[in-house]
Amino acid sequence: MQRRTVLKLALSAIAVAATPALPAESTSQMTLYKNAECGCCDAYTDYLRENGFAVTVVETPHLPLI
């Protein structure tokens, strides 16, 4: 994975982590595009689900195009 892609993913994670948690009764849908070999994306998906997001994971080798 290119350094620029990793940086973009890290900045996205920071932006979401900085937002307040949603109340338990509120669920937001989110789509996470990831490289199949990325373990940090799996951890990020778990984090989002634990904090009230319904996450759809889409594995793709073409992240720069997204």
- C-alpha Rg (nearest Å): 12 Å
Query: What fraction of the residues are assigned to beta strands by DSSP?
Result: 15-25%
Spatial strand order of the main sheet:
1-2
Number of domains: 1
Q: Tell me how many strands there are.
A: 2
SS field, number of helical segments: 2
Overall average residue pLDDT: 78
Molecular shape: globular
H and E order: HEHE
Roughly what percent helix? 40-55%
Q: Structural class, from helix and strand content? A: alpha+beta
Sketch the major β-sheet.
Answer: 2 strands, parallel
Low-confidence stretches: none
What is the terminal-to-terminal distance? Answer: 14 Å
Oligomer: single chain
Topology diagram in text:
Elements: H1 3-17, E1 28-34, H2 39-50, E2 53-59
Parallel strand pairs: 1-2
Outline the structure in words.
The protein has one domain (3-65). The protein contains 2 helices and 2 strands. The protein is α+β, with helices and mostly antiparallel strands. The model has no long low-confidence stretch (mean pLDDT 78). It has helices at residues 3-17, 39-50; strands spanning 28-34, 53-59. The protein starts with a helix and ends in a 7-residue tail after the last strand. It has a two-stranded parallel sheet.
